[in-house]
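2024-03-11 09:14:02 INFO worker-7 job=invfold-0412 stage=load source=structure_tokens
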């Protein structure tokens, strides 16, 4: 039997705030972070959810934050919070027994776009020598390893918007096989760029509710019309329960199980019957030795796109028809943070278990036939003793990842 894995720390940098407490307060308040974005005046979309007041020079101990892409800067800040929250000190830990697993959908895409514009306008002589080390997707994990002196496994996972959750599963496997004692796992992305905004718009994935930006992201609502591009990072500190106990760390939650599947259906659309998600849900329950009746709460992927919410709601409704767990999607507040979303939402789920509450789904007011019957939390947070919760992440390419968390 595999050893129990516990979460002892969380770190968040989101459009709701630059730490876990501020982000939690924001999602509980249910006020959207979406705003008109002057930097997106060129593409045919004008909304985003940016991290407010992020000053890398003030938040990061490193002396040269300008060397890193914005996504890596977010990761550093989230990592330092998670380490402090877990009661760890990277200056004294056994760095060879620490693993870093970082998910990202696009790496340093903002750096790549900026340097490409320089190449076209000025020529190759204008390019920064740091272009590749800031852009390459693996470099977020590599830079963090350098920053923290970690010499255990350090690498990158990519499964689109499920990347952060996939990184957490990978960290669990490393802990189970004894390759590390502590794992920092999660995701980061900073894809609010002209190219990404234009490409997502061309696909019809982004909300065009420009008249009322704060109501643009409407997960599960009848009038949903797409997501709002966002940015951020989320990290969990994971340990074997015995290791956490030996150092007298307080577990916030237990990572009880997980599931990961592929739809093998379409490059962007989920399987219309949600087969991959249902299979991942069953895997997560089976690996947790749990049943649908044990699930108190679901943190849904809930992108606010018509097809995703329809398929996800159908899977939840059918699988939990006799138990009706509470359901929320924080994307109504935070927007879609892409490869960071699964990790950010895992951290919020863990926080909810620890604090005995679940945040509302912002802007949800009217269900349609596909979302009717779900116990979607609205308006205000719900005081709830959460004993067992699931967090869903779905990504382009048909990736389905489900994390199962239990109260310690």
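2024-03-11 09:14:09 INFO worker-7 stage=emit residues=408
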């Amino acid at each position: 039997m595999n050893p129990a894995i516990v979460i002892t720390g969380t770190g968040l940098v989101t459009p709701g705030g630059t730490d876990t407490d501020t982000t939690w307060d924001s999602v509980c308040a249910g006020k959207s972070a979406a705003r008109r974005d002057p930097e997106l005046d060129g593409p045919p979309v004008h909304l985003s959810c940016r991290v407010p007041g992020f000053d890398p020079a003030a938040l990061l101990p490193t002396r040269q934050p300008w060397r890193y892409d914005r996504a890596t800067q977010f990761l550093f800040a989230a990592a330092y919070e998670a380490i402090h929250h877990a009661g760890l000190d990277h200056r004294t830990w056994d760095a060879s027994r620490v693993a870093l697993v970082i998910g990202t959908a696009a790496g340093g895409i903002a750096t790549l776009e900026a340097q490409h514009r320089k190449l076209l306008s000025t020529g190759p002589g204008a390019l920064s020598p740091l272009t590749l080390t800031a852009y390459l997707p693996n470099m977020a994990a590599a830079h963090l390893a350098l920053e923290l002196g970690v010499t255990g496994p350090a690498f990158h996972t990519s499964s689109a918007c499920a990347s952060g959750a996939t990184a957490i599963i990978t960290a669990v496997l490393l802990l189970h096989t004894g390759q590390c004692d502590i794992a920092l796992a999660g995701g980061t992305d900073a894809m609010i760029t002209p190219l990404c905004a234009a490409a997502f718009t061309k696909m019809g994935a982004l909300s065009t509710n420009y008249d009322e930006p704060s109501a643009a992201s409407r997960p599960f609502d009848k009038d949903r019309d797409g997501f709002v591009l966002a940015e951020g990072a989320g990290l969990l500190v994971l340990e074997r329960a015995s290791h956490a106990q030996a150092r007298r760390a307080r577990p916030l939650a237990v990572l009880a199980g997980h599931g990961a599947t592929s739809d093998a259906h379409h490059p962007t659309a989920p399987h219309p019957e949600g087969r991959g998600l249902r299979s991942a849900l069953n895997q997560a329950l089976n690996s947790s030795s749990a049943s649908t009746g044990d699930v108190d709460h679901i943190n849904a992927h809930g992108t606010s796109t018509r097809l995703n919410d329809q398929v996800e709601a159908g899977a939840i409704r059918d699988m939990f028809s006799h138990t009706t767990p509470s359901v929320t999607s924080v994307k109504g507040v935070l927007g879609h943070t892409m490869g960071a979303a699964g990790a950010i939402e895992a951290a919020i789920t863990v926080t909810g278990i620890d604090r005995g509450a679940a945040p509302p789904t912002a802007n949800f007011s009217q269900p349609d036939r596909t979302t009717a019957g779900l116990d979607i939390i609205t308006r205000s947070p719900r005081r709830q003793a959460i004993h067992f919760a699931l967090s869903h992440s779905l990504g382009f390419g048909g990736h389905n990842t489900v994390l199962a968390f239990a109260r310690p």
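2024-03-11 09:14:09 INFO worker-7 stage=report msg="The first strand starts at residue 5 and ends at 13."
2024-03-11 09:14:10 INFO worker-7 job finished
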